[in-house]
Amino acid sequence: MINKRLQDFKIILASQSSRRHYLLKELGLDFEIISTDVREEYPDILTPPEIATFLAEKKAESIDTLRMEEKMIIIAADTIVSLEGEILGKPGNYEEALTMLKKLSGKQHDVITGVCIKSRDKKILFHVSSKVYFKELCDDEIDYYITNFKPYDKAGGYGIQEWIGYIGISKLEGSFFNVMGLPVKEVYEELLKNYSYLC
Amino acid sequence: MINKRLQDFKIILASQSSRRHYLLKELGLDFEIISTDVREEYPDILTPPEIATFLAEKKAESIDTLRMEEKMIIIAADTIVSLEGEILGKPGNYEEALTMLKKLSGKQHDVITGVCIKSRDKKILFHVSSKVYFKELCDDEIDYYITNFKPYDKAGGYGIQEWIGYIGISKLEGSFFNVMGLPVKEVYEELLKNYSYLC
Q: Given CB atoms, is B169 within the 8 Å cutoff of chain A?
C-alpha cells in the first residue's frame, strides 16, 4: 500500500545496518541501499536528541546530491544510547561491551533514533525516544551474550531483538522498532505526509 | 546457557502458535511442541488476567499427565486483548476483523498473556500485561492489513510484529514479546527460579 502511494519516488536507505534494512522492508517499502562512511563525531555541546539527528543528517548529507533525481528520497538514521547523561557508543571489543552492559544492568536508559528524510527540495529531521529498563544482569548472562552475539556494531553494546533483549529487559516504554534502529511508524507518517496524500 | 542450566529437564510447549515457537526458540531453549485442542471458553465472572491464566492452565491441563515423566516441564500460554473492559477474541472472518480494528483505532488497549508452567510436582501460574496504543487507523490501512495478513488466528485481529504493528502503534508500555504471545523474560526467570540455580 505504501509503495502505491509513493509510487513516483525512488527511495534510498543510507545505512549499512541490516536491522534498518529489515525494518524498512517490513514496512512494505521498495528501496535501494547505499552505504555511507561517516565518522560518528559530533560537537560536545549537543544534547542526546541533537546528537542523533546531527548524525542522521550527516549520513544523509554524505550522499552525493548533485546527481540527485527530482523524485528521489534519502532516508538516514542514527541510534544512540543515553544512560544518565552519558552517551554509550558502539563497543570496540569484549571489554568495552562488558563495561557497557554492566552499566546498563538494573537501570533505565534512553534509546534515541534520529532520522533524516531528504529529497531535492526538502529535508525533514526528527527523533524518537524510547525508555528501556534492564533487570539486574548477572556476570554469566553478560558473558554468554557478548561471546555468542558479539554486539560490537550496536550502540550500547546490545540488540533488543537478540537473546539479551528476551531475557534482560523488564520494561519498554515507547517503540520496540525505534530501539531496534528505525522508528518505522513515524517514518511511514512523514513519507505519507510529505510525499503522498493523507488518508 | 539456559539449556545448560535446565539440562535435566525435557520441555514441552503446549501451543500451535508459530509466534510462541519462534519466541521460545529465540530464548535459546530446546523444546518439543504438542498441539492442544482446547475450547477458549471461560466463566463470565473472571477478570481479564484471570481469563488469560485460566485458559493457559486449561491448555497445560489438556496434556495427558499420567504419562508425565519426572523431569518434564509443560509451558502453555494464552493471550487476550482487553479494550475498555471488553475482551476481543480471534475474528472469525473479514467483517469481524474489521469491526475489531475499528474499535482499537485511536485507543489504548491491554494485551494480557497468561502462562502456566507445569511439572509433575509443581504448577506455576502468572500473567503479564502490556499497554498498546493505536493511532487513528484509516479505512484503507485496515482493509490493506486484513486482506494481506488475514489475522484470523490472532486475538484482537492483529499481530504487533506485522505491518499494522509497524505503521499503526503509536506507543507500547510493557513487553513487545508479551504482546506477540509469550512474556519470554518472565518465563526464563520462572524456569531458572524453579528448575535451576539462580545466578
A: yes
